[in-house]
Every structure is written in structure tokens, then in C-alpha cells.
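User:
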Amino acid sequence: MIKINDLSFSYKNSGKHIKVLDKTCLTVKKGGICAIIGPSGGGKSTLLKVLAGIIVDYEGEVLIDGVKVNPKVHRIGFIPQNYGLVKWKTVEENIFLSTKIKDGKKKIDIAYYEKLVDKLKLKDFVKRYPGQLSGGQMQRVSIARALLLKPDLLLMDESFSSLDALTREEVQKLFLEVWQEHKVTTIIVTHDIKEAIYLAKNIAIISSCPGKVLEVIDNPLFGHINIEFDLESINMNKKLRKILKGEV
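Assistant: Predicted structure:
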């Protein structure tokens, strides 16, 4: 379980303290997927950096399974918007990278690796380099790398936003298929309401800067694809936009 209590964070700019997050609270059940939506500059990416252990000088409490977040203790997978692949390493080497750093080369679960590359349709590309891949293929490599780590927490920062519409749908579908099998606790930052409705069991709406969680909504449409014209989907979209209306 992820538990965030009264999380606040400020950064210095020209000698002034700019508050980015203000007493933010959020709980994500173990094995759940929560999407975070809200206006630009509301601290969504900053929140992920706190959860990843990149930002440590915050106020409040951030716990993974009751323990303060710590990359040395926890296994945290991160899928960035720009894929985060090392250009001079092959697909296979990129997928191995996080697990190799965390556990050493000898502890890489090769059977699980083979299962992931098969599920994510990467078998034919493992000896290629990132520059020889499409955007969708690179995103799948990034997903495989994060999942091979067998993370306690998976963080996704606008991970599908740079893909074209058809590729995005394909990679989202593949991601959910892999997630359904392993149920990794996941937090997804997205600006796309449709994506949040499709990919998340719960949707947290964050305010403009300084960010604060306004409401968390249970999403009965999780995993349902191509339903944007369904009445329930239209109503959910309207509900989310209504909450955001004063913030956008």
C-alpha cells in the first residue's frame, strides 16, 4: 500500500520558496492502479519524484507498505515520457539494466525476462539498439525494464503521451495485459482523461499549484476500451471535468 500524508514540497527560485505541493494526501491499495490528473504545474511529476526517492527534502509522510520510501529498501520501477533508454546498449541490455544495478547480473530472472519480451512483442528486437526502434517499441522496452525489476511500486510519467494514437492504444493494451498478470501497484500521471479512465482503478484529481488532491474517484470503467461514446463513460468524463473546471 502507498500512503501519502500531508506531503508538502517547495523549491527555491531567485531566493524565494515556491510551494509545489501543499499537504497532499493519497492512498493507493496494494496491487491497484491510480491515475493522477490535473492542470500543468500542479506538482504531478514532483509527486512521482518524491515517490521514486529522487526528492527527499519534503515535509509530511510517504510510505510504501508502512515503510518510509527509500530506493535502497524498495524496488521502484519508473517509466518516463522519453523512455529513458541508454542509446549505446541493446534492447536486452536496457531491459536488464535496472535489475542488474539493483541485484547483480547473476540474479536476473531470465525466465521472467523471456516471458516479458514475448508478451510485449520484443523477441525480434532484443539485439537492436534504441535508435533502430520505433517510439512504440522503445516504450515497450521501457515497460519491460521496469517490470523485470519486479517493483513494489511502478511509476509512469506521461508514459504514452509521445506515441501516435494507434501505437498508444496498442501499447496501453499490452501494458494492461502484463499488469493483470502481476498486479504491480502503479501510479500513472497523465493529462489525458480518456487514458485515466481506461488505465486506472482510481483517479485522483490534483489542483493547480500548489498541488493538493481534490478528490479520488473509484473508476468502474477500468480496462474498458473504445467506450468514449458510452453513456457511463461520457458521465465519468463530465464528472472529472467538473471537478477540474475551477482549476484549468
